[in-house]
């Protein structure tokens, strides 16, 4: 079975609503291969405007985060119910900036994963080691722990709605990309871990994206690795030409 490629733009805290509309229009019109899917994750306040642009298109609309509970006294948080009403169908959870800047741990991320899946949202669960952890030879073990923690209580059936994004923290926004071989090694190991947690067939079908300084010049080489099934792109997704060339990596 050949897994589809998922090319996603995580716009982070960039683009005002009017700028986001322009970029969303461009993404909508980007050419892609038959086996490629496009996704964008604008900031919360840009979602309504971007949803209007993407309505009826082949671009999946994702949020960058969400609260771990549906409603209540949670100042500054955004609920899955609000996102669904706006047409959001996917959510990025456990991004390294959420883990390392905002202190989210596997337990909290797991609550969010389970809530999103129970509402039928697709989840992009981010995992990845820091430079210190990599240098200590712990890259695989850190990723395994984040997979186990983030996916606790998630059923094999729900895994159809889960994408994993391997984003080594030291490669995010630094211009340092993991070599395709290094990335492949971790992707293969994580697929093995998923086989252990679920089954060989779940592991075979789960999409594992790579993220961290993906650009037009390295996308094809990364995507050529057998266990790399797409990219979660930060900086290069903010420029329409760059993202277009990443989306059409196999052109
Ligand atoms: P960069 O592509 O800017 O390195 O960001 C990667 C990332 O964090 C995507 O979620």
Counting DSSP H or I runs of 4 or more residues, the number of helices is: 11
Question: Which CATH architecture?
Answer: Alpha-Beta Barrel
Strand order of the largest sheet: 1-2-3-4-5-6-7-8
Shape: globular
**Which consecutive residue ranges, at least 5 long each, have pLDDT under 50?**
none
Total separate domains:
1
Question: What key attributes describe this structure?
Answer:
alpha/beta; eight-stranded parallel beta barrel; binds 1,3-dihydroxyacetonephosphate; 16% strand; 251 residues
Describe the structure.
By secondary structure, this protein is α/β, with parallel strands linked by helices. The protein has a single domain, classed as Aldolase class I (TIM Barrel). Helices cover 40% and strands 16% of the residues. It is built from eleven helices and eight strands. Helix 1 packs parallel to helix 2, helix 7 (139-150) crosses helix 8 and helix 10 runs parallel beside helix 11. The structure holds 1,3-dihydroxyacetonephosphate. The site of 1,3-dihydroxyacetonephosphate has 14 residues, from strand 8. 1,3-dihydroxyacetonephosphate binds at residues 10, 95, 167, 172-173, 211-214, 232-236.
């Amino acid at each position: 079975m050949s897994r589809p490629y998922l090319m996603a733009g995580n716009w982070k805290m960039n683009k005002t609503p009017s700028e986001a509309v322009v970029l969303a229009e461009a993404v909508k019109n980007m050419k892609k291969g038959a086996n490629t899917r496009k996704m964008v994750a604008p900031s919360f306040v840009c979602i309504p405007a971007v949803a209007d642009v993407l309505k009826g298109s082949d671009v999946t609309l994702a949020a960058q985060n969400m609260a771990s509970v549906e409603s209540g006294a949670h100042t500054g948080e955004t609920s899955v119910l609000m996102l669904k009403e706006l047409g959001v169908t996917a959510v990025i959870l456990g991004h390294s900036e959420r883990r390392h800047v905002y202190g989210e741990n596997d337990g909290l991320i797991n609550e969010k994963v389970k809530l999103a899946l129970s509402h039928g949202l697709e989840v992009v669960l981010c995992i990845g080691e820091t430079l210190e952890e990599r240098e200590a030879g712990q890259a695989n073990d850190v990723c395994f722990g984040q997979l186990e923690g983030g996916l606790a209580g998630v059923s094999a059936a729900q895994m159809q709605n889960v994408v994993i994004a391997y984003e080594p923290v030291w490669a995010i926004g630094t211009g340092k990309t993991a070599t395709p071989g290094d990335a492949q090694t971790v992707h293969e190991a994580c697929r093995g871990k998923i086989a252990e947690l679920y089954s060989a067939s779940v592991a075979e079908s789960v999409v594992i994206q790579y993220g961290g300084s993906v650009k037009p010049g390295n996308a094809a080489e990364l995507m050529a690795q057998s266990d790399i099934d797409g990219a979660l792109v930060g900086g290069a997704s903010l420029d329409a030409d760059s993202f277009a060339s990443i989306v059409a990596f196999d052109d």
